[in-house]
Design a protein that fits this description.
This protein is an alpha+beta fold. The protein has five helices and five strands, in the order αααβββββαα. Helix content is about 35%, strand content about 15%.
């Protein structure tokens, strides 16, 4: 298994800054969250004021069916601390600037993967 160097990661994050999923790319690189955890993350799980997010939901696909559920183990349900750059990546003004057309305040149940 090959992993990116810090320089390659920085280059990718810099080049993807305008991509609608940049926030998820950034969280993947800085928090170590798994793909299913990122896909299952909802805005109700994110607390930018206190600087954390809770992992309590996962989302995967089997064939053409999307499945949502709890993480595989109790240990997988956890709180992840967000530093200032993570919080900035998730903030409203940042999301608006990332090409989220028709942006509106998300409801708590809206997946973070949803741009508008």
């Amino acid at each position: 298994m090959e992993v990116w160097t810090p320089g390659q990661t920085k280059q990718f994050l810099t080049s993807s800054v305008d991509h609608p999923l940049h926030t998820l790319f950034f969280l993947a690189a800085t928090t170590g969250m798994r793909r299913g955890e990122l896909a299952g993350l909802r805005w109700s799980d994110v607390n930018l004021d206190d600087g954390y997010l809770d992992i309590s939901n996962t989302r995967t696909s089997v064939g053409y069916e999307v499945l949502e559920g709890r993480p595989k183990s109790k240990k997988s349900e956890r709180r992840v601390a967000l530093d200032a750059s993570d919080r900035d990546s998730c903030s409203e003004p940042t999301r608006r600037l990332r090409g989220c057309t028709g942006w509106q305040q998300p409801s708590p149940s809206t997946p973070v993967t949803t741009c508008s």
